[in-house]
């Protein structure tokens, strides 16, 4: 299926939504950049691929139903979340069954096969670390904003590298409108609510998929139900560095941390 860029407000008619649909194959570089600045949101009904390779952190967004074969190259890393059903993951690391609400990081080529729905967010030209985890918990482990909580499902290996996050929005909460300096690719794992952007108010329910462009003003709201959202971040503002990580900082020679002992630190 050819990738498409469009912002679908649930209050629009089907005909109007079709008029808003734009094929990247018909876009100039300028109009392609304009398309990437749109908020993308729709129900997960078919396999979709969006191209964000022109973004600050070149990425691809795929929402996969049942199966996919990815042979784009060994230099990319893929962040997966199974929102429904189960699929078999095959890669150079082996064969694994991924059940509903599980997640994974897969560097290089891979395939999925089964009966399920899967978010696949890809960061180009980045080699990550193969890992599998899950299921997600009911609430986040970390306090966020406006009563919301979050969990880092897949941590950045080093400061600045990508991560996969879980966001919990409690019932009755409307977030303060805010932005992020890099794009966000996401999926509603459960619950219902809305996302407010300058194009309008978009309904969010289980299976809704979305892309937030860089610096897009937005806010999530949960009214009668909560919202549980999986979100790919192509970068990070926290994480270990060569000068500060748990192995280094908690290694002591006498009473001094190896962090301050330049003579023994690996060059």
Automatic annotation (TrEMBL):
GO molecular function, a single term: DNA binding
Keywords: DNA-binding
Family annotation (InterPro entries): AraC-bd, RmlC-like_jellyroll, RmlC_Cupin_sf
Every AraC-type arabinose-binding/dimerisation domain range: 176-226
Compositional bias (Polar residues): 1-14
Keyword Hydrolase carried by entry: no
SUPFAM superfamilies: RmlC-like cupins
Span list, region Disordered: 1-30
Domain of life: Bacteria
GO biological process, one term: regulation of DNA-templated transcription
Keyword DNA-binding in record: yes
Entry protein name: AraC-like regulator
């Amino acid at each position: 299926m050819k990738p498409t860029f469009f912002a679908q407000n649930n209050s629009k008619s089907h005909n109007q939504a079709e008029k808003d649909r734009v094929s990247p194959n018909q876009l100039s570089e300028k109009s392609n950049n304009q398309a990437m600045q749109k908020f993308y949101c729709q129900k997960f009904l078919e396999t979709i691929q969006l191209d964000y390779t022109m973004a600050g952190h070149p990425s691809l967004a795929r929402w996969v139903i049942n199966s996919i074969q990815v042979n784009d190259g060994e230099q990319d890393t893929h962040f997966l979340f199974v929102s429904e059903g189960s699929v078999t993951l095959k890669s150079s690391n082996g064969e694994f069954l991924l059940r509903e609400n599980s997640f994974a990081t897969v560097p290089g080529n891979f395939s999925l096969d089964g009966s399920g729905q899967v978010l696949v967010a890809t960061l180009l030209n980045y080699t990550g670390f193969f890992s599998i985890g899950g299921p997600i918990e009911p609430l986040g482990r970390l306090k966020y904003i406006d009563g919301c909580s979050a969990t880092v499902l897949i941590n950045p290996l080093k400061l600045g590298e990508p991560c996969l996050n879980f966001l919990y929005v409690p019932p009755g909460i409307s977030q303060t409108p805010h932005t992020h300096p890099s794009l966000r690719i996401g999926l509603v794992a459960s619950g219902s609510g809305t996302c407010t952007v300058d194009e309008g108010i978009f309904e969010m329910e289980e299976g809704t998929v979305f892309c937030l462009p860089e610096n897009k003003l937005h806010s999530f709201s949960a009214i009668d139900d909560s919202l549980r959202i999986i979100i790919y971040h192509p970068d990070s503002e926290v994480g270990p560095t060569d000068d500060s990580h748990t192995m280094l900082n908690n290694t002591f020679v006498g009473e001094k941390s190896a962090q301050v002992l330049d003579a023994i630190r690996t060059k």
